[in-house]
Design a protein that fits this description.
Order of helices and strands: HHHHEEEEHHHHHEEEEHH
Number of helices: 11
Distance between the termini: 26 Å
Shape: elongated
Largest sheet: 8 strands, antiparallel
Strand order of the largest sheet: 4-3-2-1-5-6-7-8
Radius of gyration: 25 Å
Strand content: 5-15%
């Protein structure tokens, strides 16, 4: 049994090693994706707070003056007073000083470095492969990491070695590092790989979460027709209505719907530490009626399970401390690949 597990552990690691390395390196970067983006584009993101922010109507006027005739698709605001607002146009994301209305800059549409990292982690390639094969490969790699973690614990157990022997060289050096890193990161790698597999196979796991919890996802309502002669209530009013619909949550993103659409307002509660928020409010653009409210605190149990799983995987669950921890553990996964390959190479050369 031990020999069988050892061979499975070795050869599965060799076959999936490159994918495991990609998951580890990209995962460590993605844990701090917003923070890295703010750092790389500091001149676009950061502003000096100057009293009360402008209304979105005033922001609209500033953008329309700078880019006349270009329709606005989306507004993104932030509760952090030192961050700029973003307004989505066809030409890209326009960064606006929320206190003065000054146009800071424009980020052209299309993937950047962080977008490539994100896609590598999820789908192996910058663009999806036919049949989303890249996502399936990375998801299977996650299953293999689960097996390697459990089998590694079984193989480690007889010696229970957690130390680096002073002066160790060759295969023994890499063996000590492989064992030590593996056992110290084991619990976290199990958590990361399990939650990652749940995300990777979401077509099966999301319905399973709803089935286990005995709940159903909320269905988007039918948008009622516009009353004769009615005009849109405006994005500022829609944000106010969304804030009242989910007390305690802060609206931060709103779309500009087509004539037969509705305002979709994204909001987040203080405990929702992910940048994308976990709550939404659908507001009729003509009457201001709330058509749908889904808050992360009161969403169906299945939805809350999906939210929790993703927050754990990304490290957002407790903010910076867990993001730092999970980023380090992702690097530990990459280190396991490096030390494992070194052990195998030293063994191969010795037996040659």
């Amino acid at each position: 049994m031990r020999k069988l597990l050892f061979n499975l552990h070795l050869y599965l690691a060799l076959v999936a090693g490159v994918f495991i390395l990609i998951l580890g390196v990209t995962g460590s970067i993605m844990a701090f994706e917003p923070e890295i983006d703010h750092l790389l584009h500091r001149n676009l993101w950061h502003v000096t707070p100057q009293g009360r922010p402008l209304s979105l109507a005033e922001i609209t006027a500033a953008v329309n003056k700078a880019f006349p005739g270009e329709p606005i698709a989306l507004y993104t605001t932030w509760s952090d007073p030192s961050l700029s607002y973003q307004v989505a146009l066809k030409r890209g994301a326009v960064f606006v000083n929320p206190y003065t209305g000054a146009i800071i800059g424009v980020r052209a549409p299309g993937p950047d470095f962080l977008a490539y990292v994100h896609q590598l982690h999820l789908r192996l390639t910058p663009r999806p492969l036919p049949g989303d094969a890249g996502k399936k490969i990375m998801s299977v790699a996650g299953v293999i990491i689960l097996f390697l973690s459990i089998s590694g614990l079984y193989l480690w157990w007889p010696l229970k070695r957690i130390r680096i022997q002073p002066g160790a060289k060759g295969r023994r050096f890499w063996f000590d590092w492989h064992n030590t890193i593996g056992i110290l990161s084991l619990v976290f790698l199990l958590i990361l790989s399990f939650t990652g597999v749940m995300i990777g196979f979401d077509e099966a796991t999301v319905p399973l979460m709803y089935k286990i919890s005995g709940s159903k996802p909320l269905e988007n309502p039918k948008i009622p027709p516009a009353p004769p002669g009615a005009k849109p209530i405006g994005v500022d009013r829609a944000m106010q209505i969304a804030a009242a619909a989910l007390p305690g949550a802060t609206p931060f993103m709103i779309n500009v719907p087509p004539p037969k659409g509705a305002y979709l307002v994204r909001t987040h509660f203080p405990e929702d530490l992910t940048p994308g928020g976990r709550s939404r409010v659908l507001v009729d653009q003509y009457t201001g009626n709330v058509l749908l409210t889904e808050g992360s605190r009161t969403a169906p149990a299945g939805s809350r399970m999906v939210i929790l799983n993703r927050a754990i995987h990304t490290g957002d669950i407790y903010g910076i401390p867990t993001k730092a921890l999970f980023s380090l553990m992702s690097l530990a996964l990459a280190a396991q690949f490096v030390t494992g390959i070194a052990m195998w190479w030293k063994r191969t050369r010795k037996n040659a």
